[in-house]
Amino acid sequence: MLEQIPCPYCDSSHTSYHFKRHLNTQHAAEFVGGVVPDHFLDAYLKRGLYSDALQRGVDFVECGDCGFRAKRMLDHLKKVHRYTAETYLAKYPGSCFTIPGVLEKRVATVQAHSAVYCVLDVPEMKQKITQFL
Ligand SMILES: [Zn+2]
Ligand SMILES: [Zn+2]
User: Could you tell me if 103 and 124 are in contact, meaning their C-beta atoms sit under 8 angstroms apart?
Assistant: First the structure.
């Protein structure tokens, strides 16, 4: 039997498949702009990046406007809220856009795909590496 999720807005419960549709048809008015965000279910069920075990700024960065969590935030800010890095920072000073370690992981991924890739081609890595040379 599929798990039933209790609706936070009314006295009913639904499978995760139907829950999103229920929110969209019955409770869209509860959400900013009348749109149920894609991440609502994950946040409500505290799963994935919304797990309580994770730490902000270490495992994820969080959107100040809607609470969306991701490992890299800039795409979300641009697409959903039309922020630039500058306008977002003006509103939320000191925010991070990327968790530490994402850059290194991306470099590792690129390296895995290209044997001739040189890590010194990435300016940020060059800076970090030359500190140790
Ligand atoms: Zn409901
Ligand atoms: Zn957002």
Answer: yes
Which three-class secondary structure state does DSSP give residue 128?
A: helix
Cα 25 to Cα 40: distance, rounded to the nearest angstrom = 15
Q: How far is the CA of 83 from the centre of ligand 2 (A)?
A: 10
Structure-model confidence comparison of residues 117 and 127, the more confident one = 127
Q: Give 82 Cα–ligand 2 centroid separation in angstroms.
A: 10
User: Residue 31 C-alpha to ligand 2 middle, in angstroms?
Assistant: 13
Tell me which ligand sits closest to the C-alpha of residue 8: 1
How far apart are the CA of 5 and the centre of ligand 1, in A? 10
Convert the pLDDT of each residue in 68-123 to its tens digit. Answer: 999 999 999 999 999 999 999 999 999 989 998 766 666 666 666 554 444 444 45
Structure tokens at 96: 């991070």
Share of the chain above pLDDT 90, in %: 57
**Please, which residues have CB less than 5 A from ligand 1, an ion?**
7, 9-10, 26
User: Quick check: is 86 in a domain?
Assistant: yes
As for how many domains the chain has, the answer is 3
Residues 81 and 123 placed together within one structural domain of the fold = no
Return the pLDDT at 64.
Answer: 94
- Where in the sequence is the domain holding 54, given as residue range(s)? 46-99
Residues 4 and 14: beta-carbon distance below 8 Å? yes
